[in-house]
Amino acid sequence: MLEKAKKIANEMLDQITWPHISRFILLVMVPFLIGAVLLQHEQMMKGDYLKITNENQTKITDSMVYTTMNGGGGLQQISTVSSLFPLAAYLDFPPFVMHNNPQVCFADNGSVLMVANNTTISPAIEWTVEIDSSHQLHFNSSAVSCHPFDLAKGNNYVWRAKIDTNVTYNELGPDVVFIPSVVAYPESQMNYGVLQGIALIPVFYLLIWYPVFGIIKKIREGMEAQ
């Protein structure tokens, strides 16, 4: 049985000629490599905002703490890929689509102070985010800070704010209130080169090679008719 299979395989290999190889390269490998390597095939993908807890208005104290936990569900696919590849939702796994370097990002989304007359002040804030009591990120209110994100488990994030208003506490008044507005979201680098390369094979054939071969055939028939 094994010898028969080897014989059939050898006969098939013997039937493969250079025209067959050249057609395979032209019709399959060229469009695949263009889509998988030459064209844009990587994009940063941002997921849904993670749930933030305890972000109510808070009286100014020496230590303000806000806690958030990841919302689960993993990273969500961005709509642009779905519009380019209608089947992307069914092929969102290796080797077709690769998700690399997952991380969770933290940012201030416009935290303010509100004084007694309802006037708001946008202070300079130095945020410290403590992750699982083992890692700390430091950033100001105009920056975004990211940390590697483990999709397999949940992480606890504790926010601490150091507020600089450039005025004294007495000038602000005893009724000053801090209104935090912070966000946390996952993101990763998505590589869809293999999916794009496969999609370009029929596209190249229908839009490029088929018309070109048709034109060449018509020219040849016209020359032979003369």
Q: Outline of this structure?
A:
Helices cover 35% and strands 31% of the residues.
Q: What this model shows, in words?
A:
35% of the residues lie in helices and 31% in strands. The protein is an alpha+beta fold. The chain folds into two domains: 1-41 and 192-226, no CATH class; 44-191, no CATH class. The chain has a four-stranded antiparallel sheet, with no helix packed on it. Mean pLDDT is 75; it is low at 70-79.
The strands making up the biggest β-sheet line up spatially as 1-12-4-9
- What share of residues is helical? 25-40%
How many helices? The count is: 5
Could you state the order of secondary-structure elements as H and E?
Answer: HHEEEHEEEEEEEHEEH
The overall pLDDT average reads 75
Uncertain segments are 70-79
Proportion of residues in extended strands = 25-35%
Quaternary structure annotation: single chain
- Outline the biggest β-sheet: 4 strands, antiparallel
Radius of gyration: 29 Å
Distance between the termini: 56 Å
Secondary structure class reads alpha+beta
Q: How many domains make up the coordinates?
A: 2
Shape: elongated
Query: Care to count the β-strands?
Result: 12
